[in-house]
Automatic annotation (TrEMBL):
It comes from Listeria weihenstephanensis. It holds the Pfam family Glyco_hydro_38C. Residues 537-658 form the Glycosyl hydrolase family 38 C-terminal domain. GO terms for biological process: mannose metabolic process; oligosaccharide catabolic process. GO terms for molecular function: alpha-mannosidase activity; carbohydrate binding. This is Glycosyl hydrolase. Transmembrane segments: none annotated.
Length: 809
């Protein structure tokens, strides 16, 4: 078929960074340093006349992480040579730091982008583009982060396995407008190995997306195969009435693998092609920034889109829930340290560089070795899993040590005999807040000489500044007594509290307590505005009723009399939903065909069955009700719901013992709440607030979301918030297998559908951690606020997750 015009095929040569997918993480670090050196050597050989057949070679460093490691591990001579080739436009630097998940927070994302920006500025070269490969989306705040760091162009090569392009198509450009109004010119290209599929690399072709008669022998990448595939590829674009250009960019790897080396032989293939077919389709290897120069000259008016580019691949975090919990704790400590001592933290560049590096590397998109699911016993599979976890562990250690240092400067002391029971409590937030805080008396300590045996009923907490006695509650924990109080603290306020003995020692007292000590009279448990029993909980804020089979069946906000449970809820609050799919025909194939549902039509779904409700504890601060469930796939599924007496807060803790199962699994937790009336649901994503299903690019994922701090239902007069400490994946809508509606399609109002926490999964066929077994504790806070401002509501999620600090002084 004759083409309607002459075409230009622009080839961008790179190595896709997939840290831990094909080799040990530290080995891949060495690989990518050497890949840049190999590119330098190729250009040097061309320059010296040793390889004239490779003239036209260009190399694109896919991310600044590659460059950062090269600069740290190369000689001054090689660095000077590298920079000379960058300035000549022969080597290009993408200013994206890594191919990230949305687990990364906005501070770390911006700081890592800024490092690349700073280096590029020092070269005095107009580098203003970023490229990503493989990943299926980015938080809306990513657009602002790019623009804020002088990155004007984004080249996206999405891998649509279990995902999809935005707007339902590839090879198109648009202006992506961030929340601030800043815009980034965005080009959505094809898969990052498309150049290999078109057989541009001798002996390193593949068949993955293209299906034709050459499937079995495409790897040899004969010239004849390249001819047929390239012409078919260009003919489709030539016939596309919506495609306005006579050029198209594709990416190519020097080898048919992720983390592949540069390959000068591509230029031999391009020369042979141009000699034979250059009058119809000319192929040229160019750099990333050069492509955007061409695009900006040739493009017509492009559409502008605002909204979240929600990532289809964010769910990898659900395959490592224990380590993700540890990572989220590291993030909190990192931020608390900066909030309490901003000047000293910023001055400690070595600490910031180290902790932000570890936080960034754990948030990188690779979640395991390529055979993690099919060969979970392999030594390399487990070694790479340990190394991935080590990024989170090191980040937590670094952030913990820095926070210890900051608290020591504020007066924290270590344990010592006969110490006064004085504690400093600190609000790390920049707003006045009321919250609970825990003080600890070690198991070997006494209070004013009193034996620990009588402490549970006979101590009190005093505010040293005012002399006021604060309501407190004592519970036994491992190796200590935990004393919890509720206190109001101004922004960044510090207060000294003392634990002392009550003047008159007391014994536990009950109203309506019979000789059998069974509390089943209507008013059992009603103590100063708090009623708790196996059928109900009532405080001055909430009225809650239980059913012996369903659990919580009613939850009313007593401030306005409205129900906090959704009319369209399918599962009661905190109920567990476990899914398991039979492995047929094998562990790889069953997962490979799951698609965007992350399950199949024949997936077995099990709802937790309530076995018991018991009152765990009642005191002056809170009451705890324990719901014990039976749930398939687990040995224990237990909800500890703590309702506070004097603050509109409910803490929820899931204690879980998960079985080891090789089949594909999902575990969800129901959170079917509402603020009532007209409301919008907001998620806190990296650098932005998003209304799921509303603030999104057309054609993007609205099945699940990876959030930072939590979610908020924002109504006309109040908000209901869900703060997520440990499990950041959220799901909206029906859990059953269904046809996927992308954002902007259909009439289903995703923003109005029931909400679930997606606690864990192992569905991916290659590099998820397949074994979810173990003991877990996941924590959540549900609260109501008298605000209709989304930013205030989401900030409360962060505040509840960080909590107040306490320390010995």
């Amino acid at each position: 078929m004759a083409l309607s015009k002459k075409w230009k095929l622009y080839v961008l040569h790179h190595s896709h960074t997939d840290i831990g997918y094909t080799e040990r993480q530290e080995k891949l670090k060495r690989y990518h340093v050497d890949f840049i050196q190999q590119a330098i050597d190729i250009l040097t050989d061309i320059e010296n006349g040793k390889r004239p057949e490779w003239e036209g070679f260009r190399w694109v460093c896919e991310n600044y992480w590659q460059v950062e490691n090269f600069l740290a591990n190369s000689s001054e001579e090689n660095i000077a040579c590298f920079e000379r080739y960058v300035q000549a436009g022969l080597i290009d630097i993408s200013l994206n730091y890594l191919n990230m998940t949305e687990l990364v927070d906005n501070d770390v994302l911006n700081h890592k982008l800024a490092q690349g920006r700073s280096y590029a500025d020092g070269l005095a070269v107009p580098l203003d583009s970023a490229m990503t490969a493989d990943i299926n989306g980015y938080s809306w705040g990513y657009a602002d982060a790019l623009a804020n760091n002088g990155i004007e162009n984004l080249f996206s090569c999405i891998h649509t396995h279990h995902g999809m392009f935005p707007l339902g198509k590839k090879h198109h450009g648009f202006w992506w407008e961030g929340p601030s109004g800043e815009r980034v010119l965005t080009w959505v290209s094809d898969h990052y190995h498309m150049g290999n599929e078109l057989c541009l690399v001798p002996e390193h072709g593949i068949t993955y997306l293209l299906e034709d008669r050459f499937n079995e022998k495409a790897a040899v990448a004969d010239f004849a195969i390249a001819e047929e595939r390239i012409f078919q590829y260009i003919e489709k674009l030539d016939q596309d009435a919506e495609y306005d250009y006579n050029f198209v960019p594709i990416m190519v790897s020097g080898m048919s693998t992720d983390n592949g080396a540069p390959n000068g032989r591509i230029l031999e293939r391009l020369k042979a092609w141009n000699d034979k077919h250059g009058e119809q389709i000319e192929i040229e290897m160019i750099t990333l920034n050069h492509f955007f120069e061409i695009l900006r000259k040739e493009m017509n008016e492009l559409p502008v889109y605002r909204g979240d580019w929600n990532d289809w691949w964010a769910d990898g975090v659900g395959s490592t829930p224990a380590v993700v919990k540890h990572y989220k704790d590291a993030q909190r400590k990192y931020h608390i340290g900066k909030q309490l001592a901003p000047e000293s933290v910023v001055a400690d560049k070595a600490y910031l560089d180290a902790v932000e590096y570890e936080l960034a590397l754990y948030a990188e998109h690779t979640w395991g070795y390529s055979s993690s699911v099919t060969e979970p016993w392999e030594t390399l599979v487990n070694d790479l899993d340990f190394r991935k976890s080590a990024y989170a562990i090191r980040a937590n250690q670094l952030a913990s040590l820095k926070l210890d240092e900051i608290l020591a400067a504020k007066g924290e002391v270590t344990i010592r005999p006969d110490r006064e029971k004085l504690f400093k409590v600190i609000n790390p937030q920049a707003t006045t807040r009321t919250d609970s805080v825990r003080l600890y008396i070690e198991h070997w300590e006494d209070v004013e000489g009193a034996s620990v045996d009588i402490l549970l009923q006979n101590i009190e907490v005093v505010d040293e500044a005012t002399g006021n006695v604060l309501p407190s509650q004592v519970r036994e924990i491992a190796r200590a007594k935990e004393v919890e109080v509720v206190i109001e603290l101004a922004a960044l306020e510090e207060r000294i509290l003392r634990i002392r003995l009550k003047k008159e020692l007391q014994k536990e007292q009950y109203r309506y307590l019979a000789v059998d000590k069974v509390k089943d009279i209507m008013y059992d448990g009603w103590q100063d505005g708090l009623r708790v029993n196996a059928h109900q909980v009532e405080t001055k804020y909430y009225s809650m009723a239980f059913d012996e089979t369903q659990g919580i069946v009613s939850l009313v906000d007593k401030q306005d009399g409205r129900s906090l449970l959704r009319d369209n809820m399918e599962h009661a609050p905190f109920v567990g939903i476990y899914e398991r799919t039979t492995t047929e025909p094998d562990a790889w194939e069953v997962r490979h065909t799951m698609g965007r549902n992350r399950k199949k039509v024949n997936t077995n779904r099990h709802i937790s069955t309530l076995r018991n409700i018991r009152v765990g504890e009642i005191g002056d601060v809170s009451a705890t009700v324990v719901f014990t469930y039976d749930l398939e796939g687990t040995q224990m599924y237990e909800i500890h719901m703590k309702v506070y007496r004097d603050t509109p807060k409910i803490d929820v803790t899931l204690r879980l013992h998960k079985d080891s199962i090789w089949d594909p699994e999902n575990l969800y937790i129901s959170f079917p709440f509402t603020a009532g009336g007209a409301e919008d649901l907001y998620f806190d994503k990296t650098g932005c607030l998003v209304r799921p299903g509303i603030d999104q690019l057309p054609g993007t994922n609205q099945e699940f979301y990876l959030v930072q701090e939590g979610a908020a239902y924002v109504g006309e007069e109040k908000s209901v918030i869900l703060a997520l400490k440990d499990t950041p994946l959220l799901v909206l809508g029906d859990l059953k297998h269904h046809l996927i509606e992308l954002s902007g399609q259909g009439s289903t109002p995703k923003n109005k559908e029931p909400l679930y926490v997606w606690a864990m999964n192992n569905f991916w066929e290659t590099n998820f951690k397949v074994d979810l077994a173990g003991f877990y504790e996941f924590r959540y806070t549900l609260a109501t606020l008298q605000t209709n401002e989304a930013a205030v509501a989401i900030d409360a999620c962060k505040s509840y997750n960080q909590g107040f600090l306490s320390m010995y002084v």
